[in-house]
Amino acid sequence: xxxxxxxxxxxxxxxxxxxxxxxxxxxxxxxxxxxxxxxxxxxxxxxxxxxxxxxxxxxxxxxxxxxxxxxxxxxxxxxxxxxxxxxxxxxxxxxxxxxxxxxxxxxxxxxxxxxxxx
Length: 118
Prior knowledge:
The protein has no helices and 12 strands. By secondary structure, the chain is an all-beta fold. The protein has a single domain, classed as Sandwich (Immunoglobulin-like), CATH 2.60.40. A hairpin with a 4-residue loop joins strand 7 and strand 8. The chain is globular, with a radius of gyration of 15 Å.
């Protein structure tokens, strides 16, 4: 399953929320932001109240760099694109987790979606 995270206008848009996953299935987070002139973003997905992942894995972090979006003949814009995962869920339950975007060690946005593992 892919969960899409888009950072725009100081908010993180998450789809789907809640995300419903079958135990033993992988999940990955697709990261995207455009319209920013920040050279680097740090994305963190964290589980503070239990985790569905093995060995207590509860914090996942990625850094994205500002890059050009090419078209066939030119550059059409700048964006941040990245991915976290895949990670395989091994424990069932309803998990409220956090998603944070930071730039220059400042929190730009933080949200708390749900991951349901059955």
